[in-house]
Amino acid sequence: MNQLRLCAALLSVSLCAAPALAGGSAPALPGTTMAGMQSGFLDINGARIHYVSQGTGTPMLLLHGYPLSGELFARNRDALANAGYRVITIDHRGYGQSTAPASDPGSLQTYASDALAVMDQLNVPKAIIGGMSMGGPIAFEMWRTAPQRFLGMILIDTIANPAGIVEQHIWKGMATKAATFGPQSLAPELLKDMLTGQTRMNRPADAAFLTTIVKQATVAADVAGANVLANRPDSLPTLKTITVPTLILEGVEDTVYPPEFSMKMMQNIAGSKLVLIPGAAHAAIFEKASAANQAIIDWARANNLR
């Protein structure tokens, strides 16, 4: 990918940082159920964090990307819960149904601290912790802070590299656009990279669902998340310290953080497994949920994470 293509790819990428002062919960997605699901709010670090918990088995905490919400995993909860896992998703502060104080709309350290505090309040000493896109750097920060809380790690269409100069300016532009035109203005920038063209044409409900989630973010969260992505630390040295079983999931058609980045992570995390998902873009966990679910279940069982 030359620099021009990289710029274009990143320009439409991965917004992950803003709660939902702008509206209630996302609409129910066709084909999902609510069986055995618990949800609520936790007062954490000055924020009100919305969570969903489903299942009673081994805990699995999944962290969404920018600027989405825990509903990104709406198609994963049932399958993973039925396979023996307690699936916990949260809306980062300022995203989805979560709210944040004006004094701390969000930072990498705050997002990681929030997630660990959710585990504490839900009485989860250890979990398989997964992060999609911006959720990856959050998972890396959690590992640096509290590696003893991990049973395993799942990295989904994410990256360990720091943002280069071009990407930094792209995120600053995203923040400016959200502040000028509102969170809804980011949806067109993102959807063309979140989903493949075939999915956008043939499954318009998928695009509408993700658009609704993007619109729920607050401006403050959009700005905070963009700053996190622009200024994220270099996590490549962290990869070599990861000692728990690690699964890397990657959409073959991801133009935000293409497969080359996932291959590099695999090479630097001892014993990690990379699964490439054909016909999926940046939101592979949602777009090709069945394939992603099966990959997670197979990996977890192979590593006795039950």
Describe the 3D structure.
The protein is an alpha/beta fold and 306 residues long. It has one domain: Rossmann fold. 42% of the residues lie in helices and 17% in strands. It is built from 13 helices and 8 strands. The protein has helices at residues 3-11, 77-82, 108-121, 135-145, 165-181, 187-194, 197-202, 204-216, 219-230, 236-239, 259-268, 284-287, 289-302, and strands at residues 37-44, 47-54, 58-63, 85-90, 127-132, 150-156, 246-251, 273-277. An 8-stranded mixed beta sheet has the order 1-2-4-3-5-6-7-8, sandwiched between helices. α5 (165-181) packs antiparallel against α9. The radius of gyration is 17 Å and the shape is globular. The model is unreliable at 1-24 and 29-33 (pLDDT under 50).
Notable characteristics:
single chain; 306 residues; alpha/beta; Rossmann fold; 8-stranded mixed β-sheet; 13 helices; globular; disordered N terminus; Epox_hydrolase-like
Indicate the topology.
Elements: H1 3-11, E1 37-44, E2 47-54, E3 58-63, H2 77-82, E4 85-90, H3 108-121, E5 127-132, H4 135-145, E6 150-156, H5 165-181, H6 187-194, H7 197-202, H8 204-216, H9 219-230, H10 236-239, E7 246-251, H11 259-268, E8 273-277, H12 284-287, H13 289-302
Parallel strand pairs: 3-4, 3-5, 5-6, 6-7, 7-8
Antiparallel strand pairs: 1-2, 2-4
